[in-house]
């Protein structure tokens, strides 16, 4: 006689059994869990507990108040944002610089990674990687000082332009507001492009070489191989980087701005992060600065969700997050 088929129970297991299994798994992994514990504690102290401080965006907070004693003002701080001309100037500058970085800085690491990957000479490849990585490890204090010196009236760039006959009289380039967006964009690309190739090179190193061999047999040239093999295999990491870049459009490099901004180029150099820093730390308007930061964070989350939805559609409904 055949044995009856016993179907698994569709109900959930008792809570006690699940708790017991959780602690059993925790104990088996106690060494790993102990290593993770400091990181969890760090995040709780410095990432989650400070979230309570966002309440000052809805209060009239001063240095003589505590978080609990400051009077509530509701959305008054957010209403001020709409009529603040200097905030909207900072928004325009932030988006202008961010879109330039997105349009140019997002593509260059991909091109540079492919070029490095296609180099057959190992020593030359390592040399190029080292040279391109190096600016990433220098702080903006160092790089900013170099740029200030190079862009000065007697600096490197003026001397080159004079020798080429492109200008007749030297000038301090960094004092010209109309050039600041390009200076911020290109200097950021110079600093981070090489470092941005690491993930792309890691993905390309895992591509099966037989794909390229088969393409060669079929008569595909180097550009065709890159288009049909290399780029499709890089698609997930490109999509992930695009999502993170789009979600950070309202963010900006505060270190770069504080180093390169001066009284002459402030109208084009002031970005949201530096504006929040100036309002909060130098003018003491903590409530308003927190309200601006909170509003920008909410918009960034919305952009993150939208970018994820778009890239999911482009990746055959497969999310990379």
TrEMBL record:
Name of one Pfam family that matches: BPD_transp_1
Bilayer topology term: Multi-pass membrane protein
Subcellular location(s) of the protein: Cell membrane
Residue span, ABC transmembrane type-1 domain: 91-307
GO CC, alphabetical: plasma membrane
Presence of keyword Lipid biosynthesis: no
Ranges that cross the membrane: 36-58, 95-117, 137-160, 180-203, 286-307
Gene Ontology terms describing biological process: transmembrane transport
Protein name, entry field: Sugar ABC transporter permease
Organism: Paenibacillus agri
